[in-house]
Write a structure and sequence with these properties.
Elements: E1 2-3, H1 17-26, E2 31-35, H2 42-51, E3 55-58, H3 72-83, E4 89-95, H4 103-119, E5 124-129, H5 132-142, E6 147-150, H6 156-164, E7 168-171, H7 181-189, E8 195-197, H8 219-230, H9 234-248, H10 251-254
Helix pairs in contact: 8-9
Bound molecules: zinc ion (ZN).
């Protein structure tokens, strides 16, 4: 399996990163898509990915850290993408859940990163919290849909529009929450060739211990719940989601 979205570079993993990677690999998770969230983390992620080849890096400017970004970071990101191994541009996107993040400024960074993805022929890793329509409109304006939305939570109507353009989605620990019935219905609706699985660790720990640190090994539990929702075997779900992830991030030709 491949974890399609995990922040393994986060400082909360500094003390035991290698042990946790090993634990996840023993449980069947071979690779990890790790998106940086700001230029200050690029060097660290690059170094980690050179030490451990299971870490596949992507680079972007996350809307959550909007106030740490500078306009010159766009140029830096562009230069970085052109000179380093990477599988995507991201994590980027829009966050309308957090009220004090300036929407216009978020849009500026997001539009610029869509252009960088387009120019460098790279897929996008998207964050679309309470902002699915706005993210869709941004992609439409740029006429670029080579994107996956992580921790997706939209309506069926929104989902149909995104699927028409071949956009992919990933789901994580929320699948294991018995109260998350809306997401469960949504997941059943998706065609299997559009879905990847993620932990988003160290965030989004599994029900009911939301406050605890989420771990890479939890991808296995997420896959088990997902298999149950889809009425498929774990093996089939592992094969299908791995195929989607490898194809989307072009891991087959890169390795
Ligand atoms: Zn993330």
């Amino acid at each position: 399996m491949i974890d399609a979205h995990i922040h393994l570079d986060d400082s909360r993993f500094d003390d035991d990163r290698e042990a946790l990677i090993k634990q996840a690999q023993d449980a069947g998770v071979q690779k990890f898509i790790v998106p940086a969230v700001g230029v200050n983390g690029f060097e660290k992620l690059k170094n980690l990915s050179e030490v451990n080849k299971a870490i596949i890096p992507a680079y972007g400017l996350h809307p959550y850290f909007l106030n740490q970004h500078q306009k010159s970071d766009i140029q830096r990101l562009n230069d970085w993408l052109q000179t380093n191994d990477r599988c995507a541009v991201g994590e980027c996107g829009l966050d309308y859940f957090i009220k004090d993040l300036d929407k216009n400024l978020q849009q500026f960074y997001f539009d610029a990163q869509i252009e960088l993805a387009k120019k460098n022929n790279l897929p996008l890793i998207l964050h679309a919290r309470n902002a699915v329509d706005a993210v869709y409109n941004s992609l439409k304006n740029a006429d670029y849909f080579n994107a996956m939305i992580h921790s997706y939570n939209g309506s069926i109507e929104q989902t149909k529009k995104l699927l028409e353009h071949g956009i992919k989605f990933s789901f994580g620990g929320v699948l294991c929450n018995p109260k998350a019935t809306k997401i469960h219905e949504l997941v059943k609706f998706f065609p299997s060739d559009s879905i990847m699985l993620e932990t988003d660790a160290p965030d989004q720990n599994l029900y009911p211990d939301f406050k605890l640190r989420n771990l890479p090994v939890n991808l296995l539990k997420i896959a088990q719940y997902y298999a149950e929702l889809k009425g498929k075997t774990l093996q089939r779900v592992e094969d299908e989601t791995t195929e989607v992830t490898e194809t989307f991030f072009r891991l087959k030709s890169a390795s």
